[in-house]
Amino acid sequence: MHDLRYPAKPRPGDRVAVVSPSTALPAIFPHVHELGLRRLRDELGLEPVEYPTTRQWQADPRDRARDLNAAFADPTITAVLATVGGDDQVTVIPHLDDEVLRANPKPFFGYSDNTNLLNHLYGLGIVGYHGGSVLVHLGRPVEMHPTSLDSLRAALFTSGWYDLAPADEWGDEPGDWQDPAGLDRPSTMFPGTGWSWHGPAHTVEGPVWGGNLEILSRILQAGRVGPSESYAGSVFLMETSEELPSDVEVYRMLRNLGERGLLAGFPAVLVARAKAWDFAKPNNQEQKQAYAEAQRAAVLRALSEYAPDTVAVFDLDIGHTDPQLIVPYGGTARVDAVNRSISVRY
């Protein structure tokens, strides 16, 4: 097991880095980005600091890495937040200065393609934070979702245990960022469905590892995951993106994790609510339900074949849907299948 350490937390009034290690969507949607920055200041009391590639479209991976190195090295910066995800952060990781990161550990917040950096920090022994996006969550239309805001505030400023809970409402149909007036229209939301539990009734406690399944698969292909036994005892977090991978693809990716020996080492798996709608695939409610059920069946099939004694919890608000709870990546999670509760230590 990795010897992981929690970085020191920021305080209200601190300067925090806002970076684009993946896609610099602030360059295309500055109105959404500016709203997110205002909420960082007004809702959380933090002073955002942008870097040269934060709004630079298709910046060279070496330049994006240079900004990350600078953000971690700057003693006046107390946390680092990603603006959004993308699909090529795998090309940025080789240019990071690991000595700088180790010497200056800071809380990093991101998800989706930022699974690359979260996994890299994990390998350096630094706890990161899966979740939070300046554009998606801070820049949410009308207001930040209270559930997202409460979790983000707790993850930023506190270090104790935080109880995750099923959301009363959820959504996966975001507004169109190309329409500035969309920021004034409420998000489409649906009644909460609660969590779904599978597996034995016992309690599991361990460090969190995993992330976006599509990105994790690419990280494995790039050879940037350690020996499988070093992750044994971890709580596996998995979520899927707006790419809407099929149930067949999800099963095959998990099967590969099983063949590698990873799945058998996870005593618990936290599965995010499946995002089942995208502008390119505007599924109706029946189609979304069918997609989510097929994905759940794929996960359960893989677990039955490779990790039959694993506790699995589905429909957590920890992925690409709204609201979003923050999970400490490398930090401790407690999954209590007896009382059906989940807590994480921020």
UniProtKB/TrEMBL annotation:
<comment type="similarity">
    <text>Belongs to the peptidase S66 family.</text>
</comment>
<dbReference type="GO" id="GO:0016787">
    <property type="term" value="F:hydrolase activity"/>
</dbReference>
<dbReference type="InterPro" id="IPR040921">
    <property type="entry name" value="Peptidase_S66C"/>
</dbReference>
<feature type="domain" description="LD-carboxypeptidase N-terminal">
    <location>
        <begin position="16"/>
        <end position="131"/>
    </location>
</feature>
<dbReference type="InterPro" id="IPR027478">
    <property type="entry name" value="LdcA_N"/>
</dbReference>
<dbReference type="InterPro" id="IPR027461">
    <property type="entry name" value="Carboxypeptidase_A_C_sf"/>
</dbReference>
<dbReference type="Pfam" id="PF02016">
    <property type="entry name" value="Peptidase_S66"/>
</dbReference>
<dbReference type="InterPro" id="IPR003507">
    <property type="entry name" value="S66_fam"/>
</dbReference>
<dbReference type="InterPro" id="IPR029062">
    <property type="entry name" value="Class_I_gatase-like"/>
</dbReference>
<protein>
    <submittedName>
        <fullName>S66 peptidase family protein</fullName>
        <ecNumber>3.4.-.-</ecNumber>
    </submittedName>
</protein>
<dbReference type="Pfam" id="PF17676">
    <property type="entry name" value="Peptidase_S66C"/>
</dbReference>
<dbReference type="InterPro" id="IPR040449">
    <property type="entry name" value="Peptidase_S66_N"/>
</dbReference>
<feature type="domain" description="LD-carboxypeptidase C-terminal">
    <location>
        <begin position="205"/>
        <end position="335"/>
    </location>
</feature>
<keyword id="KW-0378">Hydrolase</keyword>
